[in-house]
Design brief:
Elements (H helix, E strand, L loop, with lengths): L1 E6 L3 H12 L4 E7 L2 H11 L3 E4 L8 H11 L4 E6 L4 H10 L3 E4 L4 H12 L4 E2 L1 H17 L10 H11 L4 H8 L3 H15 L4 H10 L5
Parallel strand pairs: 1-2, 1-3, 3-4, 4-5, 5-6
Pfam families: GerE (PF00196), Response_reg (PF00072)
Organism: Virgisporangium aurantiacum
Keywords: DNA-binding, Phosphoprotein, Transcription, Transcription regulation
Length: 213
């Protein structure tokens, strides 16, 4: 029997999915949550095999909830089921610790298979997302040799790239699901490592290196 917790802020979808999954042989829905805070608290307490997690939720978004849950209860598998399929959200969820990612609208059988796979310790994505993820890592491997600013961490380079694209600190925080304070501190670290005086100089250096496109 695979135990599941459903976390989604839309009551019709949340209750409907819980009812649907509860009718499937081999799956037991042990709880539901309407926001990220309750999702983390309930999962830590109930220890389900899998949490089906939405991204856009009040109080604590699904990516940050996934990050906290992965730290507090690493034995709980997390399957993101959301409307968003943009690359930023997908990779933010993966970095946070999600082991699966499906877009709402997936067939019941696909969701059940994904839950079973995640519960067994596997990783699963929708077909279109899997192709994009493969292409991303193929591109990353091809460009690894010529990675600019090797003194920066992956997160610092990621933020510098968004900085060079003209994003404000607030927009960067929203894109990467980070707190504004974390972004401010990271930007300061980037300035120090690049030995630049201000944002404008950092952007020029980054764009000259091919970032921000």
């Amino acid at each position: 029997m695979t135990s599941v917790l459903v976390a989604d802020d839309h009551p019709v979808f949340r209750d409907g999915l819980a009812m649907l999954l509860g009718s499937v042989d081999g799956i037991e829905v042990v709880g539901t949550a309407a926001n990220g805070v309750v999702a983390v608290e309930s999962a830590v307490r109930l220890r389900p095999d899998v949490v089906v997690m939405d991204v856009q939720m009040p109080e604590l978004n699904g990516v940050e909830a996934t990050r906290r849950l992965a730290a507090e209860a690493p034995d709980v598998g997390i399957l993101v089921l959301t409307m968003s399929e943009d690359d930023g959200t997908v990779f933010a969820a993966l970095r946070a610790g999600a082991r699966g990612y499906l877009v709402k609208g997936a067939e019941q059988e696909e969701i059940v298979r994904a839950i079973t796979t995640v519960a067994a310790g596997g990783v699963v994505f929708g077909a279109a997302l899997a192709l994009r993820i493969a292409e991303f890592f193929a591109g990353a491997a091809a460009s690894a040799v010529a990675e600019p600013f090797p003194q920066l961490t992956v997160r610092e380079r990621e933020i510098l790239d968004l900085l060079a694209a003209g994003r404000s600190n607030g927009q960067i925080a929203g894109t990467l699901y980070l707190s504004p304070k974390t972004v401010r501190n990271t930007v300061s670290n980037v300035f120090a490592k690049l030995q630049v005086a201000d944002r404008a100089e950092a952007i020029v250096r980054a764009r000259d290196a091919g970032l921000g496109r």
